[in-house]
Design goal:
Layout lengths: L2 H33 L1 H5 L2 H22 L2 H26 L3 H39 L6
Length: about 140
């Protein structure tokens, strides 16, 4: 990979992550100012947001102070924190009635689907074990 290309990409990624982090930090600060710290921290989404804010600050400081090899790993950590932050958007989308219907449908569908997949896996595993028992080492091509 071209190092100049990666550094440009990671700087843009860091700036984007910093902007998103700042928006979520502003949201967290406003919620604490309006509702109070103890009341906000009882909700898991705001406690998670506080942990993500702390992680993002530590990751940004590490990115600015380490060398290139460490920056590659730190950029991956930023990607993970942004992925976790996207889970918070699901709680906002839950307020939409259409999204709630889709989610409830997947929840109701998941148990029968997993049962079917486990049954198919069990049958295939059973035949694989029998095949290894009878034909192990016999079939070479």
């Amino acid at each position: 990979m071209n190092t100049v290309l990666f550094l440009d990409y990671s700087r843009a990624w860091i700036v984007f992550a910093f902007i998103i982090n700042s928006i979520f930090l502003l949201d967290l600060v406003l919620h604490v100012a309006v509702f109070g710290f103890m009341r906000i921290m009882k909700k898991t989404e705001y406690f998670t947001e506080l942990l993500l804010q702390i992680a993002m600050i530590v990751i940004t400081i590490c990115y600015l102070s380490f060398d290139y090899e460490a920056q590659v790993k730190i950029t991956r950590m930023i990607s993970i924190t942004l992925l976790l932050r996207n889970l918070r958007l699901l709680s906002l989308l839950w307020e939409l009635q259409d999204f709630r219907k889709i989610t409830e449908t997947f929840q109701r569908f998941s148990q029968p689907f997993l049962t079917c997949m486990f049954s198919l896996y069990s049958v295939m595993f059973f035949y694989a074990v029998i095949g290894e028992f009878f034909f192990a080492g016999v079939i070479t091509t």
